[in-house]
């Protein structure tokens, strides 16, 4: 993280950009390599502990152009190959470098309608940015071209100008497609299928749209108005939304085809079944899954104590079990809800944590304390069945396990007690079981994930699936990638049917 103030960061960017654009000769690759990575301006770490405003403030125009100028425009586009939705990354970055933000926005929108979201929450450092030539040359992936930040900048610029272009929709075909779930996979399917002129209805179980992006990701990382803006684009394209509609209860999946006349279905219900550790004390008052904790705080807005319709537990000392992005979100939300002390307890070292480096850094800045090579053994209750403390064990790392990370091994006799009144379990989620339980025709694996082929088609004709319900808990962009594949397969199937019907008529 930069030690400079936001004003100092901006002043340096303005000075350097002016020096570069006034040169008479074109920028050579060696000159591009000398341009420093642009530090993201951030909200003050002390102030942000008391609000839900976005922490990362976004690059300025000058910073965005400088960062774009760092791109070498490689012939071998590894960044594109590593992007699950195959955005032409060098293409949109060149537009930014040239100062053509509308061109950049148009380039991204050719394949993605969620750039504001992806630019904020996708782990670019393990995907499109991982093999960036600049990062490799500097021997640091974090010094590669900041692709996600540039994508966010373009999307924010487009939203700020009010010139958001609505994708063209082809003439109506008369075909109907049902999309179950309004998370990232479902929204991508809806957009790509609707572009081809098919009628699309999204069925959402909650009263608000956005799926995990709304209930699982706090507003200090992904503001709700950005989700609303992305969804409004789909509404303007003619996508229909039905909320408070639980497929499997309100209506069975197969009835959408047999009774309601849908020609295809995409299932994108996510991974909403929280996992627990199976230790003593997990039934005590004050123990939550991260899923419930964040849903109450984000979707049901329990942080607004005077107006919310749902309560949130009053915590002073909070332990969060886990090391992923969801654990960071839960810990940082606990800080904002007034906890005096928040501890992240993780059984490996910081190096093995799956959370994004940026999120861990932000958590540390906000005063969250990390207990590495530690894990809960049991949760201890006090009066009225409430959490009083947590007994933990110390670990050391052994040989690598199936994930490639070194396996944590318990150190015998290492028990110690952590005084806490709240425990948030964030060790992953299982697939939402409702669809498979009420649709026995669907084949699932032993974890409850729907089994699909290379085109995201399930074992049932006309039904496709993707996202966390197939992958298990994954990232927004991976879910979007599956959505794109499913949409392409659905469009082909419907196009073939349409052509056959036209021939017969």
Instruction: Write down the domain tally.
Output: 3
Distance between the termini: 65 Å
The proportion of residues in beta strands is 15-25%
CATH top level assignment of the largest domain: Alpha Beta
Rg over C-alpha atoms, rounded to the nearest angstrom: 24 Å
Query: What best-fitting shape do the alpha-carbon axes yield?
Result: globular
On the 0 to 100 scale, the average pLDDT is: 92
Number of strands: 16
Work out the helix count: 19
Low-confidence regions:
none
Identify the quaternary structure here: single chain
> Can you tell me the CATH topology of the largest domain?
FAD/NAD(P)-binding domain
CATH architecture of the largest domain: 3-Layer(bba) Sandwich
* Overall helicity: 25-40%
Instruction: Write the CATH homologous superfamily of the largest domain.
Output: FAD/NAD(P)-binding domain
What can be said about the biggest beta sheet? 5 strands, parallel
Q: What class would the helix/strand composition place it in?
A: alpha/beta
- Main sheet: which strands, in order across? 3-2-1-4-16
Model description:
This protein is of the alpha/beta class. The chain folds into three domains: 6-161, Fumarate Reductase Iron-sulfur Protein, Chain B, domain 2 (Orthogonal Bundle); 176-272 and 431-504, 3-Layer(bba) Sandwich (FAD/NAD(P)-binding domain), CATH 3.50.50.60; 276-427, FAD/NAD(P)-binding domain (3-Layer(bba) Sandwich). 36% of the residues lie in helices and 15% in strands. It has 19 helices and 16 strands. The strands form four sheets. A five-stranded parallel beta sheet has the order 3-2-1-4-16. A hairpin with a 5-residue loop joins β10 (374-381) and β11. α3 runs antiparallel to α9 (147-161), α6 packs across α9 and α7 runs antiparallel to α9 (147-161). The mean pLDDT is 92.
